[in-house]
Write a structure and sequence with these properties.
- This protein has 108 residues and is an all-beta fold.
- It has a single domain, classed as Rieske Iron-sulfur Protein (3-layer Sandwich).
- The protein is 0% helix and 46% strand.
- It is built from no helices and 11 strands.
- The strands form 3 sheets. Strands 2-3-4-9 form a 4-stranded antiparallel beta sheet, with no helix packed on it. A 4-stranded antiparallel beta sheet has the order 5-6-7-8, with no helix packed on it.
- 19% of the residues are buried.
Length: 108
């Protein structure tokens, strides 16, 4: 397992959205209402990018088909077509003045 820094804490602010490719993972780091989230960068429904998703009240809504997921645990809250699996939520790790994620090298 290894720590992968994503950004400096000083760069984060409400409205912050940035995607990262780490190994085979596409991740999306967000900050809304003082809360920071790290999720898979594509919707599990049809793999539409989530960088343009609406985020409010701890919920992320895919811009393509309006599927809604909880940012607390990734579960599907609302679907407009067939149900899909949940959205993967990643644990954020703080190290010094950086925010990042721990990647399990065995999942590569």
């Amino acid at each position: 397992m290894r720590f992968v820094p994503l950004d400096k804490l000083i760069n984060l602010h409400d409205g912050y959205t940035c995607t990262f490719k780490i190994d085979h993972h596409q991740l999306l780091l967000l900050q809304r209402d003082g809360q920071r989230y790290l999720v898979d960068a594509v919707c599990p429904h049809r793999e539409h990018p989530l960088d343009a998703a609406l985020v409010s009240g701890g919920v992320i809504q895919c811009a393509a088909h309006h599927y809604r997921f909880s940012l607390a645990d990734g579960r599907l809250l609302e679907n407009t077509e067939e149900p899909c699996g949940g959205l993967r939520i990643w644990e954020l790790v703080y190290e010094g003045n950086e925010i990042g994620v721990v990647i399990d090298d065995q999942s590569i």
